[in-house]
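Progress against Task 2.4 (sequence-to-structure conversion) is shown through the following example record, which the project officer requested during the mid-term review.
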Amino acid sequence: MSTIVNVEQTAFQLILHAGNAKSSLMEAMQAARAGNLDEAHSKIEEAKVELNHAHHAQTSLIQGEARGEKVELNILLIHAQDHLMNALTMRELVTEIIHLHEKINKKIIE
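Structure tokens generated for the chain above:
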């Protein structure tokens, strides 16, 4: 029973931190659109911290399974992994969007 509770708690941690990262990434994109590139970069850093927390939660599950602790696959864990993967993809896209805003702003100033 305690393994199941631990998996559920870890899944909720993944969802929490991935969700926080996605919120920061949306704020980064909005800041870049408004021309506040320093704030955009700050929000990217916030997202990286949240993604790092999520990664640690995910790693704990992987290490447990490597030790022979079977992780029961359930919809909550699938949902959590989906959140994490979407946040990671979003980080790459938002980083590129911010880079494009920087290039556009540089061209406008020149």
